[in-house]
Specification:
Helix content: 40-55%
Oligomer: single chain
Number of helices: 5
Strand content: 5-15%
Order of helices and strands: EHEHEEHHH
Number of strands: 4
Shape: globular
Structural class: alpha/beta
Length: 169
């Protein structure tokens, strides 16, 4: 697995690169991805995230995370010896840090959630409908609890919710 990290604006990333890679490896392994994959992760400022959200989703405001899926890790038409380009996860650390207290999270925990959320999107999860959101959030919750244990932290303090969907965007 390869995670290509870009932070051209030299923004605070909220979590270290080693942890980003560990989170990506754990999510992929937990979701049954056994082949070599590549993920691009970019940190962007609030203005750039606003523009990306307007351009790609038609929503004229900033957001915390965007994901752009490329190839599926489970596509049997891609030769086994070929690296699968899963896609891009884009994080806005300024937005993430600002919203974290409102969700009862530290900036680092909120960033972990947004990273897991973005990675699950690359693996085909979605949350447009409430039932999809419940499935995705259950996976986020389980993965974040596993990651907390790996960090030596109490997994019972992890909380994901309320259901996120785009019905009102």
């Amino acid at each position: 697995m390869s995670v290509l990290i870009s932070n051209d604006a030299e923004l605070p990333t909220l979590i270290e690169e080693d942890e980003v890679r560990a989170i990506a490896a754990h999510v992929l392994a937990s979701e049954g991805v056994a082949r070599e994959v590549e993920i691009s992760l970019s940190y962007v400022d609030e203005d750039e995230m606003h523009e990306l959200n307007r351009e790609w989703r038609g929503i004229d405001r900033t957001t915390d995370v965007l994901s752009f899926e490329c190839d599926s890790a489970f596509d049997e038409d891609i030769p086994e010896d070929e690296i699968v380009e899963l896609g891009d996860v884009i994080l806005a650390p300024e937005v993430i840090a600002r919203q974290a207290p409102g969700f009862g999270n530290s900036a680092a925990d909120e960033c972990r959630l947004m990273l897991v959320h973005g990675l699950l999107h690359l693996l085909g999860y979605d949350h447009i409908e409430d039932d999809e959101a419940e499935v995705m959030e259950a996976r986020e919750d389980a993965l974040l609890r596993e990651l907390a244990v790996m960090r030596g932290e109490d997994p019972s303090r992890i909380e994901v919710g309320p259901i996120t969907n785009h019905a009102h965007d």
